[in-house]
Amino acid sequence: MSITHQPTGQATAAARLLGLLARDLAPDRLTTDPAATAPYATDRSGARPDGQPLAVVHAQHPDDVRTTLRHANALRVPVVPRGAGTGLSGAATAPEGTLVLDLARMNRIVELSPDDQLAVVEPGVITADLDRAAAAHGLRYAPDPASAAISTIGGNIATNAGGLRCAKYGVTRDSVLGLDAVLADGTVIRTGRRTVKGVTGYDLTALLTGSEGTLAVITAATVRLRPIPVATATLAAYFSSFAAAAAAATAITAARIEPAMAELLDGPVLAAIDEAQDSNLRARGAALLLVQCDGAGAAEEAAHVARVLEDRAASLDITGDPVEAEALLAARRLALPSLERLGRPLIEDIAVPRSQLAEAVRSIEAISAAHGVPVFTLAHAADGNLHPILVIDPALPDIPEAAWAAASDIFATALRLGGTLTGEHGVGTLKRQWLADELGPDTLALHHRVKSALDPHNILNPGKAI
Hints:
Layout: H1 6-24, E1 30-31, H2 34-37, E2 55-58, H3 62-75, E3 79-82, E4 99-102, E5 109-113, E6 118-121, H4 127-135, E7 139-140, H5 153-159, H6 166-169, E8 176-182, E9 188-192, H7 204-208, E10 217-224, E11 226-227, E12 232-239, H8 242-254, E13 261-266, H9 267-277, E14 287-294, H10 298-309, E15 315-319, H11 322-333, H12 335-340, E16 344-347, E17 350-351, H13 357-371, E18 375-380, E19 385-392, H14 401-416, H15 435-439, H16 441-454
Parallel strand pairs: 2-4, 3-4
Antiparallel strand pairs: 1-2, 5-6, 6-10, 7-11, 8-9, 8-10, 12-14, 12-15, 13-14, 13-18, 16-19, 17-19, 18-19
Helix pairs in contact: 1-3, 8-13, 13-14
């Protein structure tokens, strides 16, 4: 019998792999029923791959990861690492013939050290759960993605997630001290350290953070914790236009103020939240800017922000009450779920220099009008990270050409203004066609050489990120 026919060879390798995994893993670790594996084909991006995965491994121990990768690498079967599936760029999608390595059951907080202000966690730990555990010791996990209640630490690390508090505390990479990981061939490595400082060797921790499961599979992370601020002050400012709100956010930065967060929502987003949550945000203005200051000087800093905004905003509220503040921030956290009620969101994730935020907003509005495609925009305004969201009919089998054209123009705008294609969601599958526009051919080739060095047979999340 010929073994050169590719589909037959792939089927043989898949069958052998499933046999080895059934032999070497505990019975509850392997799922092959198509009805049970089908939900693992896509992630929150809504990207739809061809077919569905051949099986799902539910890892509960690093040995499960090592065993799975060792066999998959030997048989050249592609593996898609997965956390909670909340990614927004298609990085966790699993097409026909792939094996999903589900890390959600690896959800232990292994250690929480108040004295060293760090925690060691498995990749399946929910972000908000770690934050709550740290709070019992007067600490917190600073990264605060809007999906914190459902996303995992491993997924946050894989995409180098940002979030609401990244204006002051940085993105996920700034809180990751070290990683335990398994390479494609099953080799176990440890990167980084438990100390705050350290420059021994190359920074492999930073390399793996944001690599979208293409270089290694994370099995544990040592992360930095920070003291809970002694006080917070939160402002809600409404504006007559989205561009005016963006200019006001830039003015805060120009005034040398560093808030913990500055979140911007345009009128269409406010209207979507109102429809979903029975609120009345849109009636108060065409855009909302939420700013939070923290620390011992929070009230004084918030008063400084208020002075910057008072002649720019249509209305301005300020509170030091944590309950009232959380009610204000709830609108931001509910934005994406509210938009998901309208259709399938195609979520973009550009970032521009902060001085270019207002110009980016004006360009996005012009692109929306030119292509006749409604765009709903959120922004982490203090770091120039915008999320222009195109909502399309979920019944359509493919993304309409007008939506792709609008997205392409939005990416071109980001690069023209000195920005980037993605600030925190990753490249996944949805942005690969524009990657060379930002990186250039030589740098992109270097990325491929790094990938080949760590995963020479290209089994880890092939077709993603680079």
